Amino acid sequence: MKRGPFLSFGSNMKVSVLCFITETQLMEAGKTLSPRRWHAAFSEDGHLDFAKVLRRIQRGGIHPAIKGLVWEFLLGCYDPNSTFEDRNQIRQRRRDQYTIWKAECTNLVPVIGSGKFVTTSIITEDGQPIIDPSTSNAQEWHVNNAVSDKKAIQWMLVLHQIVYAWVDNDIGYVQGMNDICSPMVILLENEADAFWCFDRAMQRLRENFRCSATSIGVQAQLSTLSQVIKTVDPKLHQHLEELDGGEYLFAFRMLMVLFRREFTFVDALYLWELMWAMEYNPNAFSLYEESSAATEKGVLTVSSDELLKQCGKFEKKNVKTGSSTQQSALAVFLVASVLETKNKRILKEAKGLDDVVQHGGMAGDIVTN
C-alpha cells in the first residue's frame, strides 16, 4: 500500500494501530456504529441516511474499521446527499489539487515531499504525537532507503502541516496542529484524503490557533467558561481565582486541541466523534466548498425542517433557539460540567492550577459521562 509517490506506508503499521484502537475502545453492543450499519445506510446510488448514522454515533461512537470514512462526512468533506459518483469526482479533484500544492511547496523547498528528511520524532509507537518540531532543536536526520512505518507517519504529519501552512497563510502552522492531524494520517489510507480531512477539521478549529501578542485563539471560550462557572458555582470560581486561575488558562490546551493531550489516543478519538456528531450541521459541506469569504461568515444556517432532522443534538438546539453559538461551545460546556462535578474535590485538594486538572480527574470523567 502506497502513501503518495515518495514513501511506502506499510500495511503492518496501519493494521497494528487499528487493532490497538479496536482492543482499547469501549464499544457497547447495539450502540456503536458498526460497519454493517454504516454500509446499510447508503442507497443503491450512494445517498446516505446520515440522520440514522448520527443517532448511532451519539450513542456509542464509531467502530475503528470505519472511523476514517465516517469522519469525512462528520467533518463536511462530503455531502450525505451526494452519490458515489459525485464523491469520486470530488475526491479526484481534491487529490489533484493537493498534488499541485505539494509541488508548489517542493519548488520552494526541494526537500519537501522527497522523504529524505524528517524532523525529530513527534509520534509514539501507537501513533500518539509526543514532540512538536517547533519546540525542539529541529535537528534533522537522514532516513535510510528502508523507511519504517513509524517514520512514514512522522513524515506525513510534517508534510501535511507544511502544505496547510502554505494554503492557509493567514493562520499558518501553529504548535498543536499535529495533535489534530495525526489521527487523520493514521485512519485514512490516501495521503491527499488525510490532508483534506485535516483541512476540514481545521475549518472548525482554525480560530483556536489564531494567536497574537495580545490575544489567544481560545480567549473567548475561556471567558465563556469563566462566566459559566461563576454563575453555576460562585464558590468554585472564587477558589480558582485565589489559585490565580480566574482567567481559566489551565483549560487553554484542552480547548485548543479538543482534549487531545488530556486523553489516551483512543479516548480522544471517541470524544471527538461524539462531539462532531452532536455539533453536525448538514450545510457544512456546502459552506466549506464555497469561497473563503463564505467561510468567514462562520454561521451554518438550517432553512428547513428536513435539514433540521439531520442536525446533531447540540446543533439542533442551537438552531431551534436561534443561537449563533460557535461549534466549539460544546467543549466549553464539557470542561464546565467536569469542574462542577468535581467541585468538592477541587475545593478540598487543589493547591495550585496543576492540581485542578489532576485532582479534577477530567479525562476519565468526560469520557465516562
UniProtKB/TrEMBL annotation:
Domain of life (superkingdom): Eukaryota
Protein name: Uncharacterized protein
Gene source species: Manihot esculenta
Lineage: Eukaryota, Viridiplantae, Streptophyta, Embryophyta, Tracheophyta
